[in-house]
Design goal:
Layout: E1 2-8, H1 10-14, H2 18-28, E2 31-38, H3 42-48, H4 58-65, E3 70-77, H5 81-89, H6 102-106, E4 115-117, H7 121-131
Antiparallel strand pairs: 1-3, 1-4, 2-3
């Protein structure tokens, strides 16, 4: 078994889509090891998205992620869980996301696209450590 990390962004919470999105993962057979509703602070979001620091959308991204509550979570599944979750999410640009994906079915804007998921096992480990420092992976 392997783990990955997700954030249901403020737009998902505001639009009442948390149950719909989490249900998709459950129906796929994935398990939640941790789920928590949080109001993220600026410092944590800046550390989380440090790779985007010099990009023009960085400040807007930090502002967006801190504007309201989010759901942070750890998902467990087979060894390819990162790829499974990424495929379920769909491409970042919701206008290009395939039908059947979370973003393809539910997102309306490229910069408010409902969900973040780790893009590699290494990123998942880093992100889980950042948001759930008490969480120890076996």
């Amino acid at each position: 078994m392997a783990t990955t990390f997700i954030i249901l962004k403020p737009d998902a919470v505001e639009r009442g889509l948390v149950g719909e999105i989490l249900g998709r993962f459950e129906r796929r057979g994935l398990s939640f090891l941790a789920l928590e509703l949080r109001q993220l602070d600026k410092a944590v979001v800046q550390r989380h998205y440090i790779e985007h620091k010099d990009k023009p959308f960085y400040d807007d991204l930090v502002t967006f992620l801190t504007r309201g509550p989010v759901i942070v979570g750890v998902i467990e599944g087979p060894s390819q869980v990162v790829e499974i979750v990424r495929a379920m999410m769909g491409t970042t640009d919701s206008g290009k996301a395939s039908p059947g994906t979370i973003r393809g079915d539910l997102a309306m804007l490229v910069d408010e696209n409902l969900i973040h998921g780790s893009d590699s096992p290494e990123a998942a480990e880093r992100e889980i450590g950042l948001f759930f420092p008490e969480f120890r992976l076996a």
